[in-house]
Amino acid sequence: MVREYETVIGLEVHVELATKTKIFCGCSTEFGGAPNTHTCPVCTGMPGSLPVLNKQVVEYAMAVGLAANCQINQNCKFDRKNYFYPDNPQNYQISQLYLPICHDGWIEIETEEGRKKIRIHEIHMEEDAGKLIHDEWEDCSLVDYNRSGVPLIEIVSEPDMRSAEEVIDYLDRLRMIAQYLGASDCKLQEGSMRADVNLSVREKGSEAFGTRTEMKNLNSFKAIARAIAGERARQIDLLESGRQVVQETRRWDDTKEYSYAMRSKEDAQDYRYFPDPDLPPVVISDKWMERVRASLPELQPEKQARYEREFRLPAYDAAIITGSKRLADLFEQTVALGGNPKKVSNWLMVETLRLLKEHGEEPEQLRFSPEHLAKLIALAEEGSVNSTVAKEVFEKMYEEDVDPEAYVEEHGLKTVNDAGALEEVVKKVLENNPKVVEEYRGGKEKVLGFLVGQVMKEMKGKANPAMAGELIRKLI
């Protein structure tokens, strides 16, 4: 009898918050600075230095919690998590164990069986550690403390997910919440959103959990999906061969598509937590919490419903556009400048997504402005450029955010709508293609496209194809 297995997954998601300064000091959080240039005595753990809490961190954490249907702990506090590691300058991390800022929330995802709630156990605030850089030439490790003290929230789910698809949907919805709130850019490639995957398998129908492993710091949705598939298969192979799964932390190698044991992990590791003596408790008044609640923007589900209702967009288009705050902002701003909603949607859904895929980029990396997109759509709508030229101009706009009006003028790309000039070219094409003309006269309508194409070729793509088609019919 073949045994069937069920995957049980819970996530710990770290999200770097988009504050200008760190959680307990005034150092910059900007990504990409020279090593150890965004540091001070506080974030490098110098003796005698004292932390001061960044108020914006609390507000971002509260906003994410409210958007994720969490309860807010109006009296919360910070604790010290003690452990030794080279990138941890104080030999402890300031985090929240006993009274996290948010608890008991949920996010709804879509599954094949319908909607499903993924419970959130808690969201807590903490500081990030530094970063170890391994130098293979010198056979040593160097440490960069720029990231040390960057504010994080850790979002801990319950083990409610059963597949990679559910995990990706949950992560995508978390990312959208943080981006819509402006709480984080959630760039996985820069580490501002990282997921630790806790995974176990059990026989279908069993209520007891299997032994879980933890895969740390996965930084792309594709890597997460592959890691889940790989770890599920590894655990099932162990159980089928009569061996046990060891509770441990594992590192996923996405190139080799295999995970390696890093260290064993007990159920309750002794981090010797105790309340941080340098930070007073955080007291959140009703007034403060209601002010943050009132400032919450329209989030993705409400925005999608509005796009379908107000702009008459198909549900699929509305879901894709609102799935990225950058795309949604571009759409709304272009429409506000006079763009037809369906035309704007088409440019985003077709050409923009195509170029994003070709360049391997995310919507957040788009450089062109809504003003330039609105101008290009207007040029195409009024017939100043044909569709081929419009796509050519858009590609240039995508790369360099050129002004489409200026670009068309400068490169002589304006559509020729002069009937006299066009008629001369059409006559020449008909004279050069007598056989095709006879086929058309014989009822073969499809050859019209070939003749229009020849006119476009003669006029270097600047002819009005509709006008060319009409002239061909008339002259034949």
From TrEMBL:
Which keywords has UniProt assigned to this entry?
Answer: ATP-binding, Ligase, Nucleotide-binding, Protein biosynthesis, Transferase
What EC number(s) does this enzyme carry?
A: 6.3.5.-
A GO MF term: glutaminyl-tRNA synthase (glutamine-hydrolyzing) activity
Q: How does it assemble?
A: Heterotrimer of A, B and C subunits.
Q: What does the record list as GO biological process? A: glutaminyl-tRNAGln biosynthesis via transamidation; translation
The record's listing under InterPro entries reads: Asn/Gln-tRNA_amidoTrfase_suB/E, Asn/Gln-tRNA_Trfase_suB/E_cat, Asn/Gln_amidotransferase, Asn/Gln_tRNA_amidoTrase-B-like, GatB, GatB_C_1, GatB_Yqey_C_2, Gln-tRNA_amidoTrfase_suB_CS
Name under which the protein is recorded: Aspartyl/glutamyl-tRNA(Asn/Gln) amidotransferase subunit B
Task: Please list the reactions this protein catalyses.
Answer: L-aspartyl-tRNA(Asn) + L-glutamine + ATP + H2O = L-asparaginyl-tRNA(Asn) + L-glutamate + ADP + phosphate + 2 H(+); L-glutamyl-tRNA(Gln) + L-glutamine + ATP + H2O = L-glutaminyl-tRNA(Gln) + L-glutamate + ADP + phosphate + H(+)
Described function: Allows the formation of correctly charged Asn-tRNA(Asn) or Gln-tRNA(Gln) through the transamidation of misacylated Asp-tRNA(Asn) or Glu-tRNA(Gln) in organisms which lack either or both of asparaginyl-tRNA or glutaminyl-tRNA synthetases. The reaction takes place in the presence of glutamine and ATP through an activated phospho-Asp-tRNA(Asn) or phospho-Glu-tRNA(Gln).
Give the source's domain of life in one word: Bacteria
What PROSITE patterns has UniProt attached to this entry?
GATB
Gene3D superfamilies the record matches: 1.10.10.410, GatB domain, N-terminal subdomain
> What's the family?
Belongs to the GatB/GatE family. GatB subfamily.
Domain Asn/Gln amidotransferase stretches: 329-476
